[in-house]
Specification:
Blueprint (H helix, E strand, L loop, with lengths): L7 H17 L9 H18 L3 E4 L2 H10 L5 E2 L3 E2 L6 E7 L10 E9 L14 E6 L9 E5 L19 E8 H5 L11 E8 L2
Antiparallel strand pairs: 1-9, 2-4, 3-4, 4-5, 5-8, 6-7, 6-9
Length: 201
Amino acid sequence: MEVHYLTQEHQVAIINCIRHLSNVLPDKHFENHLEIVLSKLQEVYETINILTDGIHTLNNNVERLRNAQSGRQTSIYSPPFYSSPTGYKMCARLHLNGDGDGQGTHMSLFFILMKGKYDDILGWPFNSRIIFSLYDQTDKKQHIFDTFQPDIIPNSCQRPHTDTNIVSGIPKFIPLAIIEQENNHYVQEDAIFIKIMVDFN
């Protein structure tokens, strides 16, 4: 299982980015450096995403579920993240009111490979197991896990030639009855936490 942690490489990358930004921000010609600043901010953003180990927070859960049920917003995308410091770029797509076989009965969760900066040095097609986890936010820590092997078909796990590949995942990830139950362990203060892991073993 991949474990992401603050390596010396990460520390140096963040420190270098912050030093560069601190040198540029006081500059009265800041607009001339805007492209460089945005590039450096993207580096910091991607590094921090690696360090968070694929944990994504979904706030305003009740309102989002109502929007999904009414059809106003049927799906939500996570921010992009990398499987490791020089790994695969990916994101997740969540359907709070379900999709396909899970529509109206389950939350559906899907995995999407994205075009990344390290694709030239990675193995293709992508064939590692994906693990989704819905966090129990109480002391019981009875997290719910589900796994799947992405479909090794064109436009799903092959090297991306556009910004994103087609999705693959679990249409029946979590029954809505669990999420909608009062005082359940998984929705606290109108927020849920979902962790996405890649098993390279």
